[in-house]
Amino acid sequence: MLTNIPGYPRIGSQRELKKACENYWSGKMSLEKLELTARQLRKQNWDTLQAAGIDLIPSNDFSFYDQVLDMCLMLGVIPARFLPLQQTLANPACLELYFAMARGYQKNGFDITALEMTKWFDTNYHYLVPEFEAAQTYRLLSRKCVEEFKEALRHGITTKPVLIGPLTFILSGKIKDDTHQAALLEKLLPVYIQLLTELHAAGAEWVQLDEPFLVTDLEPAVKALYQVAYAAIHAALPGLKILLTTYFGGLEDNTALALQLPVQAWHIDLVRAPAQLADVLSRIPAHGRLSLGIVDGRNIWKNDYTESIALVTQACNSIGADNIMLATSCSLLHCPYDLDAETDMDPQIKQWMAFARQKLAEVNDLKSIMNGRHGLLEHNQAVMSGRKTAASIHIPAVKERMQHIAPADMQRQHSFAVRQPLQHAALNLPVFPTTTIGSFPQTAAIRQLRADLKKGVITREAYDADIRAAITHTIRLQEKLDLDVLVHGEFERNDIVEYFGEQLQGFVFTQQGWVQSYGTRCVKPPVIYGDVIRPHTMTVDWSSFAQSLTSKPVKGMLTGPITILQWSFVRNDQPRMQTAFQLALAIRDEVKDLEDAGITVIQVDEPALREGLPLRNARKAEYLEQAVQAFRLAVSTVADSTQIHTHMCYASFNDIIEHIAAMDADVITIETSRSQLEILAAFAQFRYPNEAGPGVYDIHSPRVPAVAEMEALLHQAARLLPARNIWVNPDCGLKTRQWAETEMALRNMVEAAKQARSQWN
């Protein structure tokens, strides 16, 4: 049996890549030092995997920003708006173009918007969306994967290059005109084949082609394109071994299609879809190899060896151990680096966990158990048994309250049609009211302040005084800018999920459990290990203080139950939605306390609601119904005159718009600027009844949009929705931005709203 890892984290165990990239962008680090950091990180990963005894070690799983963007550069998929910039560069595939496509470019006479960003399937990882147009031509522009394969060879390590497969790359992108997918594939395939040919010539024996779209519902035409693509690759390179890799679900109705493709091995996710194994084994061609994804690449819980060994034994009995690879379910990109770095965690809870490095050991343990080392199995069984019976996991009062949830608990007093005039009268806002999504820039000083409090360097009194000063400054700035609904800035919050988890029972936290969300944005997801309960208020004091500073309404800011669920590592010993409803009850209590404290606008963010959507259509309705119920349970305790906001970002809403409407939030703010309000069309077609705030500028880019640009977006929005229902806001929170650009952008945003207001009053 071989061992196989589909991918490994790339940010560095101390977030070295994040720091290096951001220093490079700010001019504090040279390109040479940035590239040196990248080489060091790649070598560390290869050495770690080799030392762990992994047979198929990935390369090209490293990325400065995003693996889909890497494919765009390799295949020459460059949108037309970047071509003038590219023509000024000595190297047409250099990092300046790469980062411009990721972040936008506003210097040297150029003002170019970034590629759109969206979620990678049902994860919290964001990728840059390829853009395809009929006029584009494609060529091998970057040889990144070949160069990194050769780099590993120089260290004495033969790797398995990882590429996004041709159909997943196309299906992940956006076709900007009427180009057919078949015509696009025909243009891209020669470049793919050239890239694979160069890898083969460089000495690559195995190449991993990731095709996670094979676990989704596919149209017959797309299934036919899979056959065309892989037949062409096999005909051109019959001697290259292709490992066709799927994850995040089961092949189901695509099983026959996948196993008929002319490749040498298939990887399947047996964590998400263990039931698919029997069907796959019955259809796999003679001498075909199967990579069993039995160690969870998406969560941090220790593998239950008993369950995994049963699956491995089933596969070995069917096709023989020599044709089996043992693997993680997907890339370990979604896991923290090393559990050994967690020196302050409760030892009982820590023993139930495994991070990326420990998962390498689990893969090898399973191989050893199959080879007769049964002591490893016995130790693992003892840990599993101890977790099941641990008293710290179960809270009888929580379970009792869950049993008494009733439909009335998920219903506002009256419909939006009744609530809207009451809220307008209470808030007295103009048409096109302006607001922000919640957070304001988190400077190094603010981050240090929180760190100093945690380390005991400063007192709670000194910390509170500095946070109050930051809130006061932000309220005064918003008043100066003439925003209509204000926020307190969230300076006390390290992360929109971690902050709440730290105050809820049933959570535990890591010191170094960083994972990549997008680009250099890293998050430290909380771990939900037991029943969830709110011991005390979480946000009331800061929101009340901010409201005391101004006569304008200040939003109370909360994170919704589904987003806390999706952006945490969730216990796997009970159904996920049961945990979601426990979270909803905790948020419900906080909403009620905010309203009792005089906060009349409360935002409960659910940016991850769509992220949790099952990949198969047949299972989406049940999830959406439960997710909507969880949100409504959290917010339905308030009076009609209290305005409930929610926020969502980087999601397509067309196929779930009726469920978004069923959430019945009074106002929803959404990311739309990178897509030029394309998403808003779904709201117009559905005749979305409540109010909406389409983001008019992209906060993930440092560029400052002009007044005219944002005003044009507002006029476009007003052609799609009633003007009285439109809010004006950025795409998302301003936490990652600098104060100067934030003030400039918000000033332009308010002016755009006023100009649009003058024409629509």
Can you walk me through this structure?
It is a single chain. The protein has 761 residues and is α/β, with parallel strands linked by helices. It has two domains: 2-9 and 40-391, TIM Barrel, CATH 3.20.20; 422-760, TIM Barrel (Alpha-Beta Barrel). It is built from 28 helices and 22 strands. The longest helix has 22 residues, at 181-202. It is globular, with a radius of gyration of 26 Å. The mean pLDDT is 95. Its EC number is 2.1.1.14. It catalyses: 5-methyltetrahydropteroyltri-L-glutamate + L-homocysteine = tetrahydropteroyltri-L-glutamate + L-methionine. The active site is at 700 (proton donor). Residues 4-315 form the Cobalamin-independent methionine synthase MetE N-terminal domain.
